[in-house]
């Protein structure tokens, strides 16, 4: 097990100063600027998610078609995530990120315009959702790999946690905002607002003067670089542990979010947005509490408890019909979700050398997004044939069965010491 102050797979960890805050990375101007722009972008992404699911639920009541919206956004992971990781290690990550952000703006704007013109069909919605997903997947490995470049070494672990917290700030407020926008101006306007939310990240990337980075290895072709990454994964038990645990979680965990547009349909678009907002609020609260929990609970025990909680929430979501009770279920699910995903993400960030990081992260994202896509389609088919409550029951049982992998595939994220969160501190 690595110690603080020793090199950990290419990330040089420094001992945190006494009393170092979980918000310390926000005192660094470069990270703070990117974090704020990212939160706005994440908020727009969740507005897009609400609008896409709600629009499909309005176009058709088929559980399979509604579930395919989430599948379409996750499916690109099967197709482009490995080349995306290789490219992020071989070319200028800043330029790659800029191109992908512009790609997503164009696709989201096209979806918004077609929706306003009443030209969207279920299959057009799926196609443009897929194209936006391609941009997001091509973006993700480079996005995660630049974290060590925009924050100091001693704040790296806290920055990873803050990135998760920022995503869940967007998850908390984006759906509620999206529900209001849909009710007031329609789904087309929501898609256009998502496109506009990306411009902050584009501006940051355009102005960012990235330090020159020498490649530690000879420049490779993309296919050879992909094979190098796959070879590393094949021989690393630590990487296999992260991937196996991610796979068994993501497939079953996708059921709740895939079926939520239909579960929330009786409460209207605002109710749907609020339910997703409760999920995000729970995730945000969990992200804030996570450093303290990680100091007293080993990572594998924490993930086990969180998985049991998420399984219970998944089961309850198919049977609870009162809005207040369902809100509580979604909030609990959000807490469990962030405890699991953040633990997996920290393990993934540190499971490979720096020169391979984007490639191994791309494989991790392939498993995560691929599991979500396959699971969403599968649970949609189960819901179509046997009903949503049955799909939620089987998914919950799948989550509990996945815990059997812990014995042979243990996470090693305990090596990271998270800084404490000051009791009276706020994000400013």
In short:
The chain has 428 residues and is mainly alpha-helical.
Word description of this protein:
This protein has 428 residues and is mainly α. 75% of the residues lie in helices and 1% in strands. It has helices at residues 29-59, 63-74, 76-90, 93-116, 122-145, 147-150, 156-185, 187-197, 199-207, 222-235, 237-263, 268-296, 299-317, 323-349, 357-386, 388-402, and strands spanning 7-8, 11-12. Strands 1-2 form a two-stranded antiparallel sheet. A hairpin with a 2-residue loop joins β1 and β2 (11-12). α7 runs antiparallel to α14.
By secondary-structure content and strand pairing, the structural class works out as: mainly alpha
Low-pLDDT regions: 1-19, 214-219, 414-428
Strand content: under 5%
Quickly give the CATH architecture.
Answer: Up-down Bundle
Task: Write down how many β-strands occur, each being a DSSP E stretch of 2 or more residues.
Answer: 2
Task: Itemize the secondary structure elements and their pairings.
Blueprint: E1 7-8, E2 11-12, H1 29-59, H2 63-74, H3 76-90, H4 93-116, H5 122-145, H6 147-150, H7 156-185, H8 187-197, H9 199-207, H10 222-235, H11 237-263, H12 268-296, H13 299-317, H14 323-349, H15 357-386, H16 388-402
Antiparallel strand pairs: 1-2
Helix pairs in contact: 1-2, 1-7, 1-8, 1-9, 2-5, 2-11, 2-15, 3-5, 3-10, 3-15, 4-5, 4-8, 4-9, 5-15, 7-8, 7-12, 7-14, 11-13, 11-14, 11-15, 11-16, 12-14, 13-14, 13-16, 15-16
């Amino acid at each position: 097990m690595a110690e603080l102050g020793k090199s950990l797979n290419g990330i040089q960890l420094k001992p945190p100063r006494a009393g170092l805050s979980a918000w310390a990375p926000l005192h660094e101007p470069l990270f703070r600027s990117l974090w704020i722009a990212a939160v706005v972008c994440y908020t727009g992404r969740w507005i897009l998610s609400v609008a896409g699911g709600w629009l499909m639920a309005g176009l058709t009541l088929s559980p399979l078609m509604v579930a395919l919206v989430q599948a379409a956004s996750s499916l690109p992971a099967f197709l482009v995530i490995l080349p995306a990781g290789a490219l992020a290690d071989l070319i200028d990550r800043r330029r790659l990120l800029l191109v992908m952000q512009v790609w997503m703006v164009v696709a989201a704007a096209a979806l918004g315009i077609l929706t306003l013109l009443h030209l969207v069909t279920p299959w057009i919605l799926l196609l443009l959702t897929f194209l936006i997903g391609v941009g997001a997947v091509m973006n993700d490995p480079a996005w995660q790999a630049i974290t060590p470049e925009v924050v100091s070494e001693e704040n790296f672990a806290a920055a990873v946690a803050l990135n998760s917290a920022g995503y869940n700030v967007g998850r908390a407020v984006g759906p509620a905002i999206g529900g209001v926008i849909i009710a007031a101006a329609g789904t087309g306007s929501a898609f256009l607002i998502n496109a506009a939310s990306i411009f902050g990240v584009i501006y940051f990337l355009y102005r960012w003067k990235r330090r020159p980075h020498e490649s530690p290895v000879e420049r490779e072709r993309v296919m050879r670089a992909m094979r190098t990454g796959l070879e590393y994964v094949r021989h690393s038990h630590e990487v296999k542990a992260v991937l196996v645990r991610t796979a068994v979680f993501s497939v079953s965990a996708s059921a709740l979010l895939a079926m939520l547009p239909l579960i929330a349909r009786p409460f209207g678009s605002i109710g749907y947005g609020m339910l997703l907002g409760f999920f995000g609020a729970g995730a945000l609260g969990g992200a804030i509490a996570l450093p303290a929990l990680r100091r007293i609970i080993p990572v594998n025990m924490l993930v086990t408890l969180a998985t049991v909680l998420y399984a219970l929430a998944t089961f309850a979501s198919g049977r609870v019909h009162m809005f207040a009770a369902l809100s509580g279920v979604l909030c609990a699910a959000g807490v469990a979700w962030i405890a699991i995903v953040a633990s997996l993400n920290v393990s993934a960030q540190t499971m490979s050398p720096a020169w391979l990081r984007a490639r191994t992260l791309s494989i991790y994202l392939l498993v995560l997004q691929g599991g979500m896509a396959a699971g969403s389609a599968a649970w949609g088919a189960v819901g179509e044939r046997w009903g949503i409550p049955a799909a939620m029951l089987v998914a919950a049982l799948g989550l509990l069965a996945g815990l059997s992998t812990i014995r042979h595939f243990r996470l090693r994220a305990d090596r990271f010491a998270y800084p404490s969160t000051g009791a009276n501190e706020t994000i400013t």
